[in-house]
Design goal:
Blueprint: H1 2-15, E1 33-35, E2 41-43, E3 57-63, E4 71-80, E5 91-96, E6 104-108, E7 116-117, E8 122-128, E9 138-146, E10 160-162, E11 166-170, E12 183-188, E13 195-200, E14 214-219, E15 226-231, E16 239-243, E17 247-252, E18 263-269, H2 272-279
Parallel strand pairs: 1-3, 10-12
Antiparallel strand pairs: 2-9, 3-8, 4-7, 4-9, 5-6, 5-8, 11-18, 12-17, 13-16, 13-18, 14-15, 14-17
């Protein structure tokens, strides 16, 4: 529904003239371009006219008003960027903060229109094309200021779906204490992936109660699919590997005590042998006990 509204607004904008202003244009002479206003559209070079050129480098800093709970959503309308494994050719990548020293929020290529969500009030965005002669139509996007960074939790709505080749998932506010009464759900579903590897950061910390606050992973798109493991307390999973194109993540908390929570980086794998190799280092189930056997 959201993307339909976006495209409707875009179409209405064209009916009364081009909706894109110079405020969001890619300008190699002004890199990165800083956008602080809300609901600003920006786009790749030549968008709506022809394919983007080779050897292009565009950078933006998208900034919401400073505040404890302020965040930035980057919402894509059209997206057509050269497809490569791990998006190693032409790509769009977002970083949390004002430059590329922050955490990567994901890298996308192909036709991936899933949004980027910040953890703080700034996002550094980069679009780069190489010189191999394969270019796409590019993309257009819009900045949306939010009061709570929605990447951190789906609350009671549909799970957040990530299709990027890599990204970060964490409990709200990590490493600060998470909120009570959470039911956060994510689905990682990268096109072409045959599995995933997850690397957890320290600390991993929840209430020491398996029915109170916990993190659960399932191979599939729901909590009813094959469970990989469930973790709670200070029993960190460290490294996790999983077969399959989809991974379901569920983090829940009750109304009692709150702890620091969790954070992990995921990476899509495209070769079954690589998945098997990674799973040798996996620690699955309730702590050291295995829930799933392969």
């Amino acid at each position: 529904m959201t993307s339909n509204v976006f495209l409707l607004c875009l179409s209405l904008g064209y009916a009364f003239g081009n909706p894109f202003s110079d405020e969001g244009a890619c300008d190699p002479a002004t890199r990165p371009r800083v956008i602080e206003a809300n609901n600003v559209m920006f786009w790749s070079p030549n968008f709506r006219e022809s394919n983007y050129p080779p050897n292009t480098l565009c950078e933006w800093v998208l900034r919401a008003p400073a505040g404890l709970d302020s965040g930035v959503e980057i919402r894509f309308g059209d997206f057509d960027v050269q497809t490569c494994n791990n998006c190693g050719c032409d790509y769009v990548e977002a970083f949390d903060g004002s430059d590329d020293s922050g955490e990567s929020l994901g890298r996308k290529c192909g036709a991936a229109t899933t949004p980027f969500f910040s953890f703080g009030n700034e996002v550094f965005l980069r679009f780069e094309s190489n010189d191999d002669g394969v270019e796409g139509e590019g993309f257009n996007a819009q900045t949306i200021h939010t009061m709570v960074a929605p990447r951190e939790c789906s609350l009671d709505y549909d799970p957040l779906v990530f299709t990027d080749a890599s990204g970060v998932v964490r409990s709200p506010g990590y490493p600060e204490p998470y909120l009570p009464n959470l039911n956060c759900r994510w689905i990682i579903s990268t096109p072409g992936a045959v599995g995933y590897k997850l690397i957890f950061d320290d600390p991993f910390s929840t209430e020491n109660c398996c029915t109170c606050d916990y993190l659960q992973l399932n191979r599939g798109t729901s909590a009813e699919d094959t469970r990989i493991g469930l973790w709670f307390g200070q029993d960190a999973p460290y490294h996790v590997g999983s077969f399959g194109p989809d991974l379901f993540v569920n983090f829940a908390s009750d109304s009692s005590t709150q702890w620091q929570g969790f954070q992990f980086t995921y990476e899509a794998l495209y070769d079954e042998a690589e998945v098997l190799e990674w799973m040798k280092f996996s620690r699955r189930g309730y702590g050291p006990r295995f829930i799933e056997k392969h």
